[in-house]
Description:
Layout (H helix, E strand, L loop, with lengths): L1 E6 L3 H12 L1 H8 L3 E7 L13 E2 L2 H5 L4 E6 L7 H10 L3 E4 L2 H17 L4 E2 L11 H7 L5 E7 L2 H13 L3 H10 L8 H4 L2 H15 L9 E2 L7 H9 L2 E12 L2 E12 L11 E8 L3 E8 L3 H17 L23 E2 L1 E5 L4 H8 L2 E3 L8 E5 L2 E2 H11 L2 E7 L1
Parallel strand pairs: 1-2, 1-4, 2-3, 4-5, 5-6, 8-10, 10-18
Antiparallel strand pairs: 7-9, 7-11, 9-10, 11-12, 13-17, 14-16, 14-18, 15-16
Helix pairs in contact: 1-12, 4-5, 5-10, 7-8
The chain binds L-homoserine (HSE).
Amino acid sequence: MVKVAIFGYGTVGSGVFEVINKNNETIQKKLGDELQVKYVLDLRDFENDPVQDVLVHDVEIILNDPEVAIICETMGGVKPAYEFTKRALESGKSVCTSNKELVEKHGAELIKVAKAHNCSYLFEASVGGGIPIIRPLITSLAQEEVESITGILNGTTNYILTKMELDGADFEAVLKRAQEKGYAEANPEADVCGYDAGRKIAILTSLAYGKNVDFADIYTEGITAITKADFAYAKQMDSTIKLFAKSVNKNGKYYAMVAPFVVNSENPLSSVKNVFNAVLVKGNMVADTMYYGKGAGKLATASAVVADVIDCAKHLGKHVNIVWEDEKLEISTIDSASRRFFVRVASTDKTAIEQNFGKVEFLESVSADECGFVTEEMTESEYKAKAAKAGNVINMIRMD
Ligand code: HSE
């Protein structure tokens, strides 16, 4: 019997309790041993919930119990999760987590601690919820030079963009509805400004290249400036608009960014709707591989945590190796990245527009006092200079 403890009985923690109990027989068959939740740590009490039988309020009980081999850290946040995780690993207990903030900030260090104490620090649930993406990246694609990762890694913004497209509504109206329905947080900043997706692409990029990507080095743009007019133009291009979290390895340089992109219907990521997430990983040998599923939610995220628990249980007393060195991965600024740009300007003077932006492909204007067009390929810094010279840009969205 493998004894497990859960830190935090919130949405994900209660999901882990449910997955382990409901699928106990299936897990036992595949693991060849039984998983049992010995403790759940939470400050609160949960009367009339079966968790009450295993609930403890003091972390020391768990950390000092040699029977506990694996801990699921589903508390979220850095404090006190960092300290609890480090102490658990130092006492040889493996830790499986959904805590992307902690993984992004201290992943490399905690893997090192786990290695030194013959246990594991696994975090499949920290990116893409229930989608298997971390394990494929570090095992199935270990032989690949990863050329690019492109992900729809935030369910809230994908839901908002999907509704804007389908209902022809503006950002604020859809956000309000999403908040009323509980799909978006009361404070939606981390989602709509792209920070959540930025943390997730920082983790995936660190794993793809084995070195530490600093979230602060990632250029991040959210979806707050996208309007229904942008979607009307995208439709003319047989495209939609998606918030992409991207990293690219080109000519020995690494780029990473989060921003809205105009995505053609031929790109499989264009059909990822509502709260679903997907990740497209391009390897130099295998070419495109894609991973799709629920990027959030109680049971989907808990399922990924339990997958890690099973991996740890199969490797008790050993370290499941993840290459993620503390050394910093230099991320180049996006200024030299080259692409086409979809631009709207407050002018109808097509000659002046081409004087400012070079040859462009004009779209049918969606209002009388503006023009929408797509530029030829140019670098970000070239685009910036042209836009500053024109001085009348309403909005710009990068072309995928
Ligand atoms: N706020 C996140 C999202 C939750 O909307 O995808 C999962 O990390």
